[in-house]
Specification:
The structure is a single chain. With 376 residues, the chain is α/β, with parallel strands linked by helices. 39% of the residues lie in helices and 14% in strands. The chain is built from 14 helices and 13 strands.
Length: 376
């Protein structure tokens, strides 16, 4: 069987699909992964076929006329911009670019991630069955113009989308979120899929001492030197060692002179690191949040944008961590919250229970065995 995977060109959208793509390849299927060109070398290293399609999310914002200053998350202006980008510019470009790839590869099934509606539209136009792969919690269905905008884009390609909500385009949904965190339901077939962290391999710095180890990251897209600096200052006051992944948007030098218990790196192999730390402090991105949950770690979440506020609220409500929002992200608050999580038996117990729930979800290998059920 030939299977085509397609994601937006983003770590948080691409890497959650890699474990299933690798499992399908290991079971003898032909697999082609289509996304932004910057991810193709790493995917080819895994033995996957590749093709570059679509535009990046920043290019989507630019095409929608957005500047560097973005509207306040949750505001009407923000919802309008999200609709323009994720229901308009991105799906239109992906649907255009994917059509010749589908014609050349003739897949039996297209697995598109939940943010890449354009791949689902292109598959429907070509008459190829689709499966929607989640990357985190299901987004709320409250964007008033999202549905009409996406339907209009689909109509440009001669595709009539199904009635009702369109978060999975009516396709079966591979849900990587454990039920205790997943608030929304979809009116489609739901197939649980264990979230398995993936990161490009790398060398870990020396870790493992007598003190607790804290890992701090604001991810790959929402790094902010000022916020990261306040978090570093707070964590440095604890009797703990602190590993910081500054990410591609923050230069480590921007954090200035650091205490002896803090080590800053541009990038760290997160999937390998999480099993060795005692606490994670992060932005609330879906991939990091689910990877930390799978590792049984208590989490201190400092959401910055996108789906991060929803993720932070879900973890805090469950009791597997706490969140600090906006102006509350101060040196003192980060220090106090981290100290409470390191010493809090209740949060650690809930985090372990969440990890056990995730471990019981079907593996990528078992879900890959089911993919022929959905193919043409």
């Amino acid at each position: 069987m030939r299977v085509l995977f397609s994601s937006l060109a983003s770590y948080g959208h691409t890497y959650p699909m890699v474990p299933l793509a690798r499992a399908a390849l290991a079971q003898g299927h032909e697999v082609v992964f289509t996304t932004g060109a910057q991810f193709l070398p790493a995917l080819r290293e895994l033995g996957l076929g590749t093709a570059a399609v679509g535009m990046s999310i920043p290019e989507g914002y630019a095409a929608a006329g957005a500047g560097e200053r973005r509207p306040e998350p949750g505001s009407e202006a923000w919802k309008k911009l999200m609709t323009q980008v994720f229901a308009g510019e991105l799906p239109r470009r992906f649907a255009v670019d994917l059509q010749p790839v589908l014609a050349a590869t003739e897949p039996d099934l297209v697995v598109h991630e939940a943010g890449n509606h354009g791949a689902g539209i292109a598959a429907a136009r070509a008459g190829i069955p689709g499966v929607c792969h989640g990357f985190g919690l299901v987004a709320p269905d409250d964007f008033g113009d999202f549905g009409p905008t996406l339907r209009a884009v689909a109509a440009e390609f001669g595709v009539e989308l199904p009635a009702g909500e369109l978060r999975a385009l009516g396709n079966p949904f591979l849900d990587v979120a454990p039920k205790s965190l997943q608030e929304s339901e979809l009116a489609v077939q739901r197939i649980p899929l264990r979230p398995v962290p993936f990161a490009e391999p790398g060398e870990l710095p020396p870790v493992g001492g007598t003190r607790p180890l804290i890992y701090l990251t604001l991810g790959t897209a929402f790094g902010d030197a000022e916020v990261l600096g306040r978090a570093v200052s707070g964590l440095a006051e604890l009797d703990a060692d602190v590993l910081v992944a500054a990410g591609p948007t923050v230069e480590p030098a921007a954090l200035g002179e650091l205490p002896a218990n803090v080590s800053v790196h541009s990038w760290l192999p997160q999937a390998e690191l999480l099993g060795r730390v005692d606490l994670i402090v992060h932005h609330g991105g879906s991939g990091t949040m689910l990877a930390a949950a799978a590792a049984g770690l208590p989490q201190l979440l400092l959401p910055r944008g996108a789906d991060q506020f929803r993720n932070a609220a879900a973890v805090a409500e469950l009791g597997a961590g706490t969140e600090l929002l906006g102006a509350d992200v101060t040196t003192a608050n980060v220090r106090d919250a981290a100290e409470a999580l390191l010493g809090g038996a209740q949060h650690r117990r809930v985090a372990r229970e969440l990890a056990a729930e995730i471990a019981a979800m079907p593996s990528p290998e078992s879900v890959a065995e089911r993919l022929p059920e959905f193919a043409r």
